[in-house]
Automatic annotation (TrEMBL):
It holds the Pfam family SIS. It comes from Donghicola tyrosinivorans. This is DNA-binding MurR/RpiR family transcriptional regulator. The lineage of its organism: Bacteria, Pseudomonadati, Pseudomonadota, Alphaproteobacteria, Rhodobacterales. PROSITE patterns: HTH_RPIR (PS51071), SIS (PS51464). Keywords: DNA-binding, Transcription, Transcription regulation. PANTHER family: GLUCOKINASE, RPIR-FAMILY TRANSCRIPTIONAL REGULATOR. CDD domains: SIS_RpiR.
Amino acid sequence: MGKQRQIRTSLMYVVENGTPTLSGFAAWTLDHLNDVAFQSIRGLAQQAGVNANTVTRLAREIGYDGYESFRQDVRELIQAAPPLYGDRAEALRNRTGQDIWSEALSTSWNNVETLFQSDGLATIEACVAPLLAARRVYSIGVRSCYGVAHYFSYVGAMAFDNFVQVPSMPGAIIDQMSALTEDDIVIAITYEHYSAEVVRACQVAREAGAKVLALTDSYQSPIAVGAWKVLRLPMAGPQLMPSLTTAFITVELLLAAMTAKDARAAKRISGFESRIMEHGGYVQK
């Protein structure tokens, strides 16, 4: 029996055989599994109109040692299917600000801790020398990921002369990808739902023999398949969309590590600052 069917069968048993309070809450839970995936005990209890003890009792009644293990199983099921942003938004309804902030802080911290595990840092370190040696470094991200790609290309171009400005005009992604060589690296950023433009760009890059560094949410992501390196980004959290905190930290770490190994980077950045100041681009205190 699949895990989802097992959970639903167990909940139905409680609906039919549990105490009135547990039965009613189990019936409610069957229709609100997305809320279970992203709510704390207190938040779920408030939304369902029960007390926190009832939430814990239901989890134990269907075979879990507590709510967290139940929520983890439900979250894995939700994440196994294409996540609907509307469902994430719906899960925020009737939650208190303190409850959302508390979970966002907790999950963000866990995301960063996971990113900083040895394999993640080792992958980042292994990318530094090839990025410095590449003929060109391209950054590809659209929609919510455009900000990450823009930051990487903008700050990277301040310090290194092989960074290409992130494409922003219609058709510009393929225009850039069509000029790729095997000496280039493409940093691609997307998560489920995977942006078609980024997936296509990675296909073109692989066909050209360029290296693809995939920043994505899963090793089964379409941009991870055939990639040179994959940095799997933990993106859990109650936010409207998957959290991009680890994406920004990753590109910041890459740029910092590259700067540490390039003796000319500081001089280039100083020159950039001087030019912007000279032309009034910065306002001083």
